[in-house]
Design a protein that fits this description.
Helix content: over 70%
Distance between the termini: 91 Å
Number of domains: 1
Shape: rod-shaped
Strand content: under 5%
Radius of gyration: 28 Å
Structural class: mainly alpha
Number of helices: 8
Number of strands: 0
Order of helices and strands: HHHHHHHH
Largest sheet: none
Length: about 220
């Protein structure tokens, strides 16, 4: 028996609960791959434009806001966008503006994690449901046929064990990327907090510099 035939055989023995578990596994894999690609692009953009972001902060500190804004616009990183927001709204309540923008950036990074979190909880529960239905089937077979049909009894037990194992496999498979992505988001949160602080300080200093060089009327 080939591996494919073995998997198909297990799936069939697992009963109807295997279908929602299959859907859960497909959704978890889709979300995980999409998030991996998204995070890889974001990390590459942050590394590629790190110098531009620092240069934009330096220009903002000198009061050269137009140059700083042009440089920040070239950045495709979340830090660069945060710096651009700070420069654009430097005359407003900056801490609230930066906090709002940072939350919107984090929402982009958290997208899809709720689905993984749900699957982590849902898959074992579906496995337990399959366990219950398999045991019920076994007892029903025992009550009707007694021990004259042992194959029917073992079929129900097999269904119970297979669905439990399948639920755990799907849950573990979703848990590993979920924890990795959560760790990534914590790092992004720290980076955004540091960038927001630097941007706020740079804009405050830049505004003072710009005011100092304004001609006296």
């Amino acid at each position: 028996m080939s591996s494919y035939q073995f998997i198909v055989s297990l799936f069939e023995k697992g009963g109807p609960v295997m279908w929602p578990l299959l859907v859960c596994s497909f959704v978890a894999m889709t979300v995980a791959f999409e998030r991996m690609i998204f995070y890889a692009r974001e990390n590459a953009a942050s590394r590629r434009h790190a110098h531009d972001t620092e240069k934009a902060l330096e220009l903002a500190t000198q009061g050269r806001f137009d140059e700083a804004a042009l440089l920040a616009k070239k950045s495709a990183s979340c830090e660069g966008r945060l710096v651009l927001t700070a420069i654009t709204h430097r005359d407003m309540v900056l801490d609230e503006t930066l906090e709002t923008h940072a939350l919107s950036e984090l929402d982009r990074h958290r997208r899809g994690l709720t689905i993984l979190d749900t699957i982590i909880t849902l898959a074992p529960m579906l496995g337990i449901l399959g366990t219950v239905t398999g045991i019920i089937g076994s007892f029903d077979m025992l009550s009707s046929d007694g021990i004259q049909n042992p194959a029917g009894v073992t079929r129900g037990i097999a269904e119970a064990l297979i669905t439990t194992a399948a639920g755990l496999v799907v849950s573990i498979g979703a848990l590993i990327p979920f924890n990795a992505f959560s760790s990534h988001i914590r790092r992004v949160t720290r980076d955004l907090e540091q960038t927001a602080y630097k941007a706020e300080v740079a804009c405050a200093r830049g505004v003072k510099v710009a005011q100092a060089f304004q001609p006296v009327k």
